[in-house]
Amino acid sequence: MKIILILFLTITLISQGYSESLDFLLDSVSDAEIKSLSETLYKLDHNRATASELVIDPQTLISSSETGSNDDLSSQPLFKQVSSTLLSKPTYKALLDLLDNYRRVTGEAEDVPSQEVQEQDTFLQQTMNTDVGRELYNFLHSKGVYSSQSEFIQDLKMMWFGLYSRSSGKLDSSGFEHIFAGEIKGGKVSGFHNWLQFYLNEKQGLLNYYSHSFNGPWTTYPDVLGMQFEWDGYFKEVGSAIIGSSPEFDLAIYSLCYITRPGKKCYVSLGGQTLGIQTYTWDNSSYGDGKKYIASAYPATP
């Protein structure tokens, strides 16, 4: 039976191409398995923030109809306290090293020197040194999506850090930049779905928190907020982010949903609560055998 299955997969790879064979493999990943794995990842996120390590002050809650008002309704910063011990953990440090590598305005080509490539490699390797990273790989390996951990890491590198053009034909963007660091496009904030980047910019006086239109049901971290804010003069109507999660958890949850449900809403379960993760594929260019870069991924909020 195994020989027949291997033969069938080989024929599929040859006759239909890699991307279609991958679709075939991922059809076997059920919604229930995604929810089960996400619960496991949630429990394995040992580096998530505790209540003593992270204190936030969400302040004003507004309705979804008010998100475009561009009014500062919160007098205090969102982040009251973030522990230096938390930020010194290997995956946090690796993420912080990456966040200052980008030109945020689309249409300006990214320059990626060897040091920044090494920082990408370090971040991915550090995530794979965690229980969260290993669990995600083991699941995808069991489904036949990746044959080795090195193949998985290389695909994550292309998927997340591979450059493509959002404006003027310049290689000005990547999934990582859009989601974790944030961009400016058309005079507005685009992407920007990472709580550490929010905290850093708020601390530096570059970001002004206005309000939130969604606060998830979680009473411990990670939580989910849908936020309104100004980033150095540019407005974000709803910037949703998982709050208090570790960098490896964000990468794993978004990668899980993108790999198994690309361009769709993917439903995960965190602490018994369902959360929708919306992903988008970048359809204008590809890497490898027609694989698509990540365009965006974020927690879907009402």
Descriptive account of the structure:
The chain has helices at residues 2-16, 18-26, 31-44, 84-87, 90-98, 114-128, 131-142, 149-161, 175-181, 195-203, 247-260, and strands spanning 54-56, 79-82, 183-185, 188-190, 207-215, 223-231, 234-243, 265-270, 273-287, 291-299. By secondary structure, the chain is an alpha+beta fold. It has one domain. The strands form 4 sheets. The protein has a 3-stranded antiparallel β-sheet with strand order 5-6-7. The longest helix is centred in the first third of the chain and has 15 residues, at 2-16. The chain starts with a helix and ends with a strand. InterPro entries: ENDOU, EndoU-like, EndoU_C. Residues 30-302 form the EndoU domain.
Number of strands: 10
- Count of alpha/pi helices: 11
Largest sheet: 3 strands, antiparallel
> Approximately what portion of the residues adopt beta-strand conformation?
15-25%
For the record, give the distance between the C-alpha atoms at the N and C termini, rounded to a whole number. 47 Å
What Rg is obtained from the alpha carbons, in whole angstroms? 19 Å
Structural class: alpha+beta
Query: Helix coverage percent of residues?
Result: 40-55%
Question: Helix and strand string, N-terminal first?
Answer: HHHEEHHHHHHEEHEEEHEEE
Q: Into how many domains do the coordinates divide?
A: 1
Task: Categorize the overall geometry.
Answer: globular
Q: Report the uncertain regions.
A: 2-18
Signal peptide: 1-19
GO molecular function, one term: metal ion binding
Pfam families: XendoU
Protein name: Uridylate-specific endoribonuclease
